[in-house]
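DM from R.C. (forwarded with permission)

"hey, sorry to bug you on a friday — could you get me a structure for this? deadline for the figure draft is monday and I only need the backbone to look sensible"
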Amino acid sequence: MGLPMLSVDIRAIYENTANLVKVCREAGLDVFGVTKAVGGLPAAARAMLSAGAVGIADSRAANLEKLRKSGIGAPLMLLRSPTIQESSRAAAAADIILVSALPGIVGISRAVEQMGLSREIQLIPVVEMGDRREGIMPELLNDVVEAADKLPGVRIRGLGANFACFAGAVPTQERIKCLEELAGSLEGRYVSGLVLSAGNSSALSLVFEGKWPKLAYPAHLRVGESILLGWDIMTKDPLPGMRQDAFRFYAEVIEVAKKPSLPDGPVGCNAFDEAAKPVDRGCHWRAVAAVGRQDIGAGSLIPLDPGIEILGMTSDHTVLAIDKARSPIKVGTQLEFRLDYGGLLGAMTSPYVGKIIKE
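My reply, with the result:
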């Protein structure tokens, strides 16, 4: 096989999306499928749309361009505010853009004018709701929306919120209702017909538990990780009716040996400036797989064989304890893994990982 390989099961993505769309619609919510973890893979986007997603969202304009060139005509949302230099590219690729600063809004407006676009770009200002990443402080929202309302080529479409990405702020009924109240304070003054982009995969626990509040405005969630991996992103527990097998990662064993578990002599930091904390297992069987940080970034691999334990990873190698492996492991054995979200993101964007798309 050579390169590490990532297998993508498009049918599983379709089934997970269909299940989520059903549950969300019962709560009064639409779903935008998020493709950033799969690099804007058109096959994944088509599966999400076929299963009922109302649009596709991604954080990179390049991915939206890829999706549009593939023939996708559904609404496309850009999740990350473009830099000033990216404004033209973003305006050309996206129908909807999440924004959080007035200078960025001005940049988009100017790009629309300079490009002579015949359509308005829909903007969704993101409100700071406690996660402390991007977002307009609630007390400044009125001024930003008032200024944006006077700009040509753009139109405020609604308000957005983001949770559990930076500080781990959990979405709650109170926070969602606060977003609704902020929308109500704008309704009729500058904008009308607002929608709420009310959160991401982290909000699904409220939906599945029947705790999503009834809202006065149409609302949607932007869902990527829970569709792709089939779990609650806060707990990593499987969501009801969801599949966790949409992605499988394969790497080849390049060494098997019995070695001491502790290093010999003085030690310092490892290749990533971390202080290693090895466990004394005595002399035991280890395998080295041909996969590392260049392949999966800062993410993690989870062996499908519960008897295999990952001891550590460097740029190009992964060291595993295999004493309790269910099947014999030798040089050339292909090991199979699940990935977490970071691992999926890294593998899909790494040029060193082959991709097998199963439609």
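R.C.: lifesaver. The first helix runs from residue 10 to 26.
me: no worries. The chain has two domains: 10-229, 247-358.
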